[in-house]
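ASSEMBLY PREDICTION REQUEST
Request ID: AP-0331
Submitted by: J.K., bench scientist
Number of chains: two
Total residues: 688
Priority: normal
Notes: Please return the full assembly, not individual chains.
Input sequences:
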Amino acid sequence: MSDPSLAHRPTLEAVAARAGVSRATASRVVNGSDGVRAPLAERVRRAVDELGYVPNQAARTLVTRRNDAIAVVVAEPETRFFSDPFFAQQVRGISKELTAHDNQLVLLLTEGAADYERVGRYLAGGHVDGALLFSLHDDDTLPGLARRAGVPTVIGGRPGWSDADTLYVDCDNRGGAREAVRHLLDGGRRRIAHIAGPLDQTASVDRLEGFRDALPGTDPGMIIEGDFTPEGGARAMADLLDRCPDLDAVFAASDVMASGALRVLRTRGVRVPEDVAMVGFDDIVSVAEWTDPPLTTIRQDIEEMGRMMARLLLRRVSPGPGQQESPALSSIVTPTQLVVRASA
Amino acid sequence: MSDPSLAHRPTLEAVAARAGVSRATASRVVNGSDGVRAPLAERVRRAVDELGYVPNQAARTLVTRRNDAIAVVVAEPETRFFSDPFFAQQVRGISKELTAHDNQLVLLLTEGAADYERVGRYLAGGHVDGALLFSLHDDDTLPGLARRAGVPTVIGGRPGWSDADTLYVDCDNRGGAREAVRHLLDGGRRRIAHIAGPLDQTASVDRLEGFRDALPGTDPGMIIEGDFTPEGGARAMADLLDRCPDLDAVFAASDVMASGALRVLRTRGVRVPEDVAMVGFDDIVSVAEWTDPPLTTIRQDIEEMGRMMARLLLRRVSPGPGQQESPALSSIVTPTQLVVRASA
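STATUS: Completed
Returned structure:
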């Protein structure tokens, strides 16, 4: 322990002496190891308490206020987290950026929203310097829990509220959706349907707005809500075909939903793009290049957005050298790009 | 703070008074928030130090010695972690078990072994009560780092060393491999090759031993080392076909490698199972049921093994009620099971 401000703190040796045990035994108790008999462990804990002993790392953290660790919390159950390649790509960018700054990526997994209180307790426990939150839904309690925990955050995707303190990274969902529909219109399509994402998420709402910008007055029966899964895309496509058998194009709010929709079209003998053209959103290469036919889509640079989120949060957590406070930081909205493949 | 042993600890109010700032300002500094001017923050830190103030959570942890959080560290780069469905399945079991015990799953991701020192620092930082380590390689420094950090561990897969303190959960890799080869022999196959996993991992070594048990004296040219990826399986299969054009069966040490090998056989016009039979290992349903033809394999219950690892670690971390020390715990080796599909 070279930090001079810690020099007068009680040492582990002092704890051991007061408890009448060896340093090794005191160390095991303080470090939470097994195998020390309860009465001895109790004596050590009493000595810790009486002397006000703080283990090195906790003491160091108390002074530096840094753990060099950033939490990532995805507001989805782990099953969805592992099955949707979007998340792996975003985490990839975050991981690269945090590693470049020697910060540890701490991924907090949950089975569902019922576990958020526990995540909040972990965030409040002083184990991380900040948190990246993604895939928020309207009623998510995570941002409030993070705020009460006093942990600086950056949000992945525009949050459903806005205030000066909130920082986020998103792509231009509305502009991208407009471009998708214009590409279909330019190709001569006139009966264009939309498979939206879950409408309790801003990305879905913004993509729907972009669709409506390009096609004002669309029959509401041509718009159907999916859930960002292949199965949800397949269900939505089946419903659309039943409702509007004359549709000639679909804009799906994610590549993953588009892949499910393409499967239904193939099963029903509908030719893509001859009978129905399809445009997705995201450009997840492992999906869009492998659908049959390959998928025309709106590209967002998911990995780079992960890097941006991490960079923004690190700047929020650590003001630069010579700066007393964080610099003025702002949210980032990145452009999207049309990628034309065979489906439209 | 209801714990009476904490009653005499200095309060945040006392820190604020000593520093001559408001309680709110003191709280912001102690909680690591932004926006407190440096000289004020410095005064608060000095007061913290002089009074020996410990924030509630740290104080609570110091007394209870529990964070209700378990780390999971996979000794693979995050790219491999996200691309191999084996890990998602094992994490699924761990997540369910930890959630059932209201413990937080803390997944520590890395870009590679160069980041293990940082993982070791996080483990030593008192942020988790224990760690589950998997996919260890012979030269991995992770177990040593965890030991020095004083964090109780359970290992996924038999480790390359053995001592009384080490607990692990594994399947009967050797017995499973023997069963795979016997199934091929029973089907009349006589020129059986083996695509092994990376031989710096015990699972690969044990499966190779099982292969040799059933086929003593096999030509070493019929055994080739892969790397548990589809690409590695494909490369190994291509090499085997060049070396031993008369082979009539392959036992691949993982379903993922078998899927790559099947692709090469198809490309070369080799019929499965007519010309060459294939048996995998793992029974990862999302792989084995979808290969062409579907894959005969050796099943290990990966999700249940994740649950077992979590359960064993929680028992190691928290002795049961009325117990002064951890009960005697032992490593677990689960049986495997042949699952016959079309490939053999």
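REVIEWER COMMENTS: The domain at 4-64 of chain B is CATH 1.10.260.40 (434 Repressor (Amino-terminal Domain)).
SIGN-OFF: pending second reviewer
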